[in-house]
Amino acid sequence: MSQGGAVATIKTEEEQEFLFKMAQSLSQGDSYWLGLMGSSVDGTWQWSDGTPLENGPQFWEHQPDITGENKELCGRLTPGDNYRRSWFTSRCSGHLRRIYSVSQHALCASAVAEPKERARIRVYLRS
C-alpha cells in the first residue's frame, strides 16, 4: 500500500467494534481480510505485526481448526448481527477487500472507488 500501512490488527474490543461498524456501513455482504494468519506447524494464530492472537481478545464465529488440510488460513471480518462473533477463516489466497492500519489514528478499508475521509477513518476504495 502506497500509504505505508499494514493489514489491520485488532488488540482491543473497542477496535473490533469500531472496525465492525465501519465494515457494516461500507459492506454489501463483503468480507474484509484482517492481518491474521494461522500456522499449521504449531496450530496458533498470529497478527501481521508478529503478536500472537492469544495475547488479546478474539471474536470468532466458530473456533478455527488450522490442522491437517487447512494449512494456509487467514482471518476475515464479515459484518453480521454481532461484532463479538464476526471473525471467520478463509484460504489466504482468496480475493477479499482489506482493512489497513495506516497510523495510530487512521484505519482503511479497501473497496472499489475513490478515497473518502471520515473522522478517524481513511477509507481507500480500490480493487
From TrEMBL:
Residues 1-93 form the C-type lectin domain. PROSITE patterns: C_TYPE_LECTIN_2. Coiled coil: none annotated. This is C-type lectin domain-containing protein. InterPro entries: C-type_lectin-like, C-type_lectin-like/link_sf, C-type_lectin/snaclec_domain, CTDL_fold.
